[in-house]
Hints:
Number of domains: 2
Amino acid sequence: MSLAELEEENCRLKQMDANLSLEHEVLKDIIEKATQVAQRRELAMYAVETHGLSERRACRTMNLNRCTFRYPVWQARPERLCRTFQPDLPGTKISSEITSISIML
Protein backbone atom coordinates (compact mmCIF):
# COMPACT_ATOMS: atom_id res chain seq x y z
CA MET A 1 0.00 0.00 0.00
CA SER A 2 1.18 3.44 -0.76
CA LEU A 3 1.26 6.30 1.72
CA ALA A 4 -1.67 8.04 0.01
CA GLU A 5 -3.84 4.92 0.30
CA LEU A 6 -2.98 4.56 4.00
CA GLU A 7 -3.84 8.21 4.66
CA GLU A 8 -7.13 7.80 2.80
CA GLU A 9 -8.04 4.69 4.82
CA ASN A 10 -7.02 6.43 8.06
CA CYS A 11 -9.28 9.38 7.20
CA ARG A 12 -12.16 7.03 6.41
CA LEU A 13 -11.71 5.16 9.71
CA LYS A 14 -11.58 8.41 11.69
CA GLN A 15 -14.83 9.55 10.06
CA MET A 16 -16.46 6.21 10.87
CA ASP A 17 -15.30 6.47 14.50
CA ALA A 18 -16.69 10.01 14.76
CA ASN A 19 -20.06 8.90 13.37
CA LEU A 20 -20.28 5.94 15.76
CA SER A 21 -19.33 8.13 18.73
CA LEU A 22 -22.05 10.62 17.82
CA GLU A 23 -24.65 7.87 17.43
CA HIS A 24 -23.59 6.41 20.78
CA GLU A 25 -24.01 9.76 22.56
CA VAL A 26 -27.42 10.31 20.94
CA LEU A 27 -28.66 6.87 22.00
CA LYS A 28 -27.42 7.36 25.57
CA ASP A 29 -29.20 10.72 25.73
CA ILE A 30 -32.43 9.19 24.41
CA ILE A 31 -32.24 6.32 26.89
CA GLU A 32 -31.67 8.72 29.76
CA LYS A 33 -34.50 11.09 28.89
CA ALA A 34 -37.09 8.77 27.37
CA THR A 35 -37.11 5.94 29.88
CA GLN A 36 -37.72 5.63 33.57
CA VAL A 37 -35.34 3.93 35.98
CA ALA A 38 -37.27 0.64 35.94
CA GLN A 39 -37.07 0.52 32.14
CA ARG A 40 -33.36 1.30 32.19
CA ARG A 41 -32.87 -1.51 34.73
CA GLU A 42 -34.63 -3.94 32.39
CA LEU A 43 -32.53 -2.76 29.44
CA ALA A 44 -29.35 -3.22 31.47
CA MET A 45 -30.44 -6.75 32.46
CA TYR A 46 -31.15 -7.49 28.80
CA ALA A 47 -27.67 -6.24 27.82
CA VAL A 48 -26.04 -8.42 30.47
CA GLU A 49 -28.01 -11.58 29.72
CA THR A 50 -28.22 -11.35 25.93
CA HIS A 51 -25.03 -9.61 24.88
CA GLY A 52 -22.74 -10.70 27.70
CA LEU A 53 -21.90 -7.19 28.88
CA SER A 54 -20.57 -6.82 32.38
CA GLU A 55 -22.93 -5.34 34.96
CA ARG A 56 -20.72 -2.28 35.29
CA ARG A 57 -20.62 -1.60 31.55
CA ALA A 58 -24.35 -2.16 31.10
CA CYS A 59 -25.14 0.26 33.92
CA ARG A 60 -22.75 2.85 32.53
CA THR A 61 -24.32 2.49 29.08
CA MET A 62 -27.84 2.92 30.46
CA ASN A 63 -26.74 5.73 32.81
CA LEU A 64 -27.92 3.71 35.78
CA ASN A 65 -26.43 3.48 39.25
CA ARG A 66 -25.22 -0.05 40.00
CA CYS A 67 -27.03 -0.08 43.36
CA THR A 68 -30.24 0.77 41.53
CA PHE A 69 -29.55 -2.12 39.16
CA ARG A 70 -28.94 -4.63 41.94
CA TYR A 71 -31.60 -3.74 44.48
CA PRO A 72 -35.31 -3.22 43.77
CA VAL A 73 -36.96 -0.02 44.84
CA TRP A 74 -38.94 -0.29 48.06
CA GLN A 75 -40.72 2.69 49.49
CA ALA A 76 -41.57 2.57 53.16
CA ARG A 77 -45.09 3.73 53.77
CA PRO A 78 -46.03 4.24 57.41
CA GLU A 79 -49.62 3.13 56.91
CA ARG A 80 -48.47 -0.17 55.42
CA LEU A 81 -46.14 -0.76 58.37
CA CYS A 82 -48.87 0.08 60.87
CA ARG A 83 -51.24 -2.41 59.30
CA THR A 84 -48.75 -5.26 59.21
CA PHE A 85 -47.20 -4.74 62.65
CA GLN A 86 -49.54 -4.72 65.61
CA PRO A 87 -47.68 -5.06 68.90
CA ASP A 88 -49.23 -6.88 71.83
CA LEU A 89 -47.56 -4.71 74.46
CA PRO A 90 -49.85 -2.55 76.60
CA GLY A 91 -49.20 1.15 76.20
CA THR A 92 -47.58 0.71 72.80
CA LYS A 93 -48.29 3.50 70.38
CA ILE A 94 -47.62 3.53 66.65
CA SER A 95 -47.42 6.93 65.04
CA SER A 96 -48.88 7.08 61.53
CA GLU A 97 -46.65 10.02 60.62
CA ILE A 98 -43.31 8.39 61.27
CA THR A 99 -42.22 4.78 61.22
CA SER A 100 -41.22 4.43 64.84
CA ILE A 101 -42.63 2.62 67.83
CA SER A 102 -42.70 4.23 71.22
CA ILE A 103 -43.61 2.40 74.40
CA MET A 104 -45.16 4.52 77.09
CA LEU A 105 -44.03 3.53 80.54
